[in-house]
Every structure is written in structure tokens, then in C-alpha cells.
Design goal:
- The structure is a homodimer of 200-residue chains.
- Chain A has 200 residues and is of the alpha/beta class.
- Chain A is built from 7 helices and 8 strands.
- In chain A, the strands form 2 sheets. In chain A, strands 3-2-1-5-4-6 form a 6-stranded parallel beta sheet, with helices on both faces. A two-stranded antiparallel sheet of chain A has the order 7-8.
- In chain A, strand 7 and strand 8 form a beta hairpin.
- The longest helix of chain A is centred in the middle third of the chain and has 14 residues, at 61-74.
- The interface between A and B is large, with 55 and 55 residues.
């Protein structure tokens, strides 16, 4: 079993490569209709080891607040922000992930290639954006994406797809290290809720 | 890689055991607030190989209709129904899964034991109910459950938790067999939407 994926600019235990920054880009958010799905999506990104969620579509401070609040309470260094022009941002990222070199764009879609095949060949040495669509994804996303990947070819949920994809790609996290600095820590238990707060 | 999990009363390829019926019980549904999360949850149950979703909390025909409609269009034999008294039903299932012998109750909770440890020891020869809570889960569920299992001890999403758990426990499905009989079939593609309808 691979061990935790450290967040700082050090070598990942599992790969021997420098830490790979993973962002999740949520396209097409609608404040009312997608409120809880988008909230769950960002929390899933955080829980399964992404570094950041980027919200696009309708601006929604309440989603950002939820993610910041959970990070403050449960620890870690998860970031989030709103992006008004996600397509422009993605086009740039495809060319320049911040260091003048291309980034990796993974588009999760029920129409893509099987994730089990794709995960093992994905680039692990470049910043990655995982794009998660809403109802209507512009066709350009399919072309911009380095990989169009499906977690099954059945309709289900972008939240489940993101969870399964990240779990598979990132692997197990050492939660007590990875989510350090929070106010609350859950202690795994066979039969009850067991929580340690930072006052304990 | 394990191959598909046949639905009929035959031997599962992966285990050599008779087909294990897996139901997902969604507790505490609220029609307005949980509409889309519950919908995604049922679709995730179907896509990752559960046989049935049981809705509890507020009765909601629209959720059942969504699941039935997806099953008609995309195939397979997924079932769904509403249960007015989920705790009574679970208490009975704990004693008698329909054949006079106890069923297995898996409760997904962020407070439980790590899923990676649990999955390998779960019973594969008895009907299983995977219980997924809403906001407030009665304490009795922790005691009724054969296993309280957490998919990470961070707050994220019951949809992601269910997807990761089922993906791990059930394993890969041969989708074209498992979801036979639908009107639509998605063909995995590297770069576009590719769909076959039953008219083709």
C-alpha cells in the first residue's frame, strides 16, 4: 500500500516524483440547482487528495465558504477559488501550467475511455486539472483534454466519478499528516462516533 | 482483473459464490433539499453494481422515476422502491434477509473503520444492505450494522463514499452484459460522445 501524498514541494512517497499539484475544475455551476452537488464535489476533491477546487459557472460565495470552513475545521491546505473564464483559463493551462510547460487536463465524462486503463498511463510529473462538467460540457473540452476518461459508461454522478478517479490515481492518504492542523479529528471506530477536538 | 458480476441466481465469476444481492438503503431523504444528491446516489448504486436502491425519509416518486427511467434507457435490472419504516425493515433484515438467516448490514459513515481494511473481510455469501445516511443517522444504525465503514474519515459525500465502496467491493462490471437490454449504449471514446441506440 502506498503511503501518504505529502503536500509540500517534496518528493511524493508513492512515486519518487516531486509533488504533483492536482486541481479540480467544476464547470457550469448553477447556484440554486447545483448547490449541494457542487459542495459535495469540492469536499470530495479535498478528501481524496486534490490540492484545489476551482469553481466556474455562476459565482457562489457559499460554496467557497463551505470548503474553507471544512478545511479550517478538519485540517490540510486545500484551496478554492472562483474562475470567471474557465475555457480561457484551460486553454492557457494546456500550454502553460505556470512554468511555461503544458499541464495535463483530465476530463471526466461518461463518454471517455475506461479509467482503469487510463489511470496507469497518466502523467505524474506535471500539474493536473481534473475537469468535471455540469449538464452541458462544451465540445471544446473534449479536444482540449489530454485525456477524456470515463468512470464507467453509465450515467451516475460526477461526485462518485471524481471520488473513484482520485482514489485510484492518488491512492491512500495518511490522513493524520495530510489533514494536519484542523480543529477536529475523527478517530476510526467500529461502533460509534469518536472525535478529538483541538481542545482535548 | 475480475470479470462481470452476473445478476441472475448463478455463480459470481469473481468469487465462485452464488450472486450476492446488494441493496442500498438511503435514509432520511428530504424531497427538496436532497433531490439531486439522492438521485445521484441511486444512479451510483446502479452504475457500480448494486441490485436495488431503497428510499427512506420523505416519499418521493420523482427519485424513483429517475432511477426507473435511466434503467429503461441504459439497461440492466436495477430495482427501486420506497420504504416507510426503514428501521423496522433493517431490524428484520439483521435477523432474516428473506431466507430466515441474518443479512449483512454495512453502514457507510465517516466515523467507521477504514474501508480498505474492511472490504477484504466482508461477507460475500449473504444478502447485503449498504446503509447511507442523510444528515442525522439514528444511533441505533451504528449498533444494527454488521460493519460501520468509513471511506476516509473526512467529511465529503455519501455519493463518493458509495461509489468508492461499491467499486472496491463489487469490482469491475462487464457493462455490456450487466446493463443489457437498454435503448442506449455509450461506446468508450478517446475524444467524443459516441452512442449506439437500439434503433441502430
Amino acid at each position: 500500500m502506498k503511503s501518504g501524498r505529502p503536500r509540500e514541494n517534496v518528493t511524493d512517497d508513492s512515486t519518487g516524483l516531486p509533488h504533483q499539484r492536482i486541481s479540480v475544475l467544476r464547470l457550469g455551476h448553477r447556484r440554486e440547482r447545483d448547490k449541494r452537488i457542487t459542495s459535495h464535489l469540492g469536499l470530495t476533491a479535498r478528501a481524496f487528495g486534490a490540492d484545489e477546487v476551482i469553481l466556474a459557472g455562476e459565482e457562489d460565495e457559499s460554496a467557497l465558504e463551505t470548503w474553507r470552513s471544512v478545511t479550517a475545521r478538519f485540517g490540510g491546505e486545500f484551496e478554492c477559488r472562483y474562475e470567471a473564464k474557465p475555457l480561457s483559463w484551460l486553454r492557457r493551462f494546456a500550454q502553460d501550467a505556470g512554468d511555461g510547460e503544458p499541464g495535463v487536463i483530465v476530463h471526466l465524462t461518461m463518454y471517455g475511455e475506461p479509467w482503469r486503463d487510463a489511470v496507469s498511463v497518466l502523467e505524474r510529473n506535471r500539474p493536473m486539472v481534473v475537469v468535471v462538467g455540469g449538464t452541458k460540457v462544451p465540445g471544446e473540452i473534449f479536444r482540449l483534454a489530454t485525456h477524456n476518461i470515463s468512470v464507467g459508461n453509465q450515467p451516475h454522478s460526477e461526485v462518485a466519478a471524481l471520488g473513484v478517479f482520485l482514489e485510484s490515481f492518488v491512492g491512500p492518504l495518511e490522513e493524520s499528516d495530510y489533514f494536519a492542523g484542523g480543529e477536529i479529528r475523527v478517530v476510526p471506530s467500529l461502533d460509534r462516533k469518536k472525535v478529538i477536538t483541538s481542545d482535548d
